[in-house]
Design brief:
Blueprint: E1 3-5, E2 10-13, E3 16-25, H1 29-42, E4 61-67, E5 72-80, E6 86-94, E7 115-121, E8 125-132, H2 136-149, E9 153-154, E10 161-164, E11 167-175, E12 181-189
Antiparallel strand pairs: 1-3, 2-3, 2-7, 3-6, 4-5, 5-6, 7-8, 8-12, 9-10, 10-11, 11-12
């Protein structure tokens, strides 16, 4: 291990509490995938076969194991870095404590026709992501209306960042498959500007 990142914070993803850790190691991804698969199996976890494991773009690899008795999943995401280093994300999700996420906490409503919503929250931010059959211009116009109704104002020099008091909402959209666009609303607290000395 070259570096460890302390991240003992619990986030909530899709209503499931998740603990994340990160580290940088000097070992190639192929060796790490096998090492984690062996460790998961040795620990009595079920490791679905490779064709059932979701994979990521950009040369990253992902491996998930399941503790079917305790309702836990363990996921490792391996991201290649320069000089034969690998960034390792470790996640532990407790599905036994899952609660249905509520749209009541959303900073703004989703447009009609939205689907596949995912809500993630931690102490300082909340993220809402979904797919919608709209153009980028229509998405931005929709949120300009909805956020303005909620007392948000477009930040100076921005086209998709809104502020209200000590809060900020960023609206990001990009093309997805099937004439859909992927939309992410990131709501976070920001330091309110204070008086200039």
């Amino acid at each position: 291990m070259v570096e460890q990142v302390d991240a003992n914070e619990v986030i909530e993803a899709g209503g499931v509490p998740v603990v994340l850790h990160a580290a940088v190691v000097k070992e190639p991804i192929q060796d790490l995938v096998q090492r984690f698969a062996d460790a998961f199996r040795d620990g009595g976890l079920h490791v679905p076969p490779g064709n059932e494991q979701p994979q990521l773009a950009s040369g990253a690899a992902m491996l998930t194991a399941v503790d079917i008795f305790q309702g836990l999943t363990y996921t490792v995401i391996l991201q290649p870095q320069a000089q034969n280093l690998t960034l390792v994300y470790l996640g532990e999700a407790n599905h036994a404590l899952r609660r249905e996420p509520s749209a009541a906490d959303d900073v703004a409503p989703m447009p009609p026709g939205s689907r596949d919503a995912l809500r993630v929250s931690d102490e300082g931010s909340r993220t809402l992501s979904f797919l919608v059959p709209m153009s980028s211009a229509d998405i931005q116009a929709y949120y300009a209306r909805e956020l303005t109704r909620g007392g948000w104002r477009l930040a100076e020099g921005e086209r998709a960042v809104y502020t209200r008091g000590g809060e900020e909402v960023r609206v990001v959209d990009e093309a997805a498959e099937g004439n859909l666009r992927s939309v992410v609303l990131l709501h976070r607290r920001v330091r309110a500007p204070g008086p200039t000395p």
